[in-house]
Amino acid sequence: xxxxxxxxGGLQLTLSIWHPDCWTLEVTDKTAAGLLAHGVYNTQxxxxxxxxxxxxxxxxxxxxxxxxxxxSSLTDSVLELRERHGATGTGSSPGNTTRExxxxxxxxxxxxxxxxxRGFIHNDPVRxxxxxxxxxxxxxxxxxxxxxxxxxxxxxxxxxxxxTRITSAGGGNPKQLRRMDRLSDSQREAFELARQEDYYAWPxxxxxxxxxxxxxxxxxxxxxxxxxxEAKLLDPDQ
Length: 238
Known about the structure:
Layout (H helix, E strand, L loop, with lengths): L2 H6 L2 E8 L4 H8 L3 E9 L5 E9 L2 H13 L3 E11 L11 E9 L6 H5 L4 E2 L3 E4 L2 E8 L3 H15 L2 E9 L5 H7 L4 H12 L11 H8 L3 H16 L4
Antiparallel strand pairs: 1-8, 1-9, 2-3, 2-7, 3-5, 4-5, 6-8, 7-8
């Protein structure tokens, strides 16, 4: 590791990943719900059990995901721990409805060991939506080394891996990044597009109507997504 890299303390990356034979990708691609993956525990029979939060904007969407998880040939068992719905806009839930699940499955069908063995350290819940896993990871070396190792994983796992965010480990605001995880998919999409299109610049780079058109929603819906996203990101008590 170079002296310059040591001073920066490594990298924070967000990886968008697809890989074959993964039940989380299968069920989130089939349904309108998403998953947050919190942790994985080994079992005595060689499988693993993962703790997940299933989330969506409606109870029916979450139940559809749970049913798809139970029906998947890639899962061994599903245990529903509790139900929590009706979350408010200032809470930490990424959707209006959530359920906590323990899911048992084959560890050979995950990509976590391939990442960890090459120094990519998972440091926040993995968000799974629309058939993609979004991994926040820390990497202790350079960008070139990270890309080289990601190429190895792509070939080894027949995986599609995109780096969607990369910063020096000391350059971000960890509390702000954690708040981003509290946004629903629609709030996150609206907020990130607004930033990308300089909606928050002065003068604005795009009008509210134009931004809503790019997002494919009404102006009223866009403003509601942004209002809720801003409340979650700016609330000092969150």
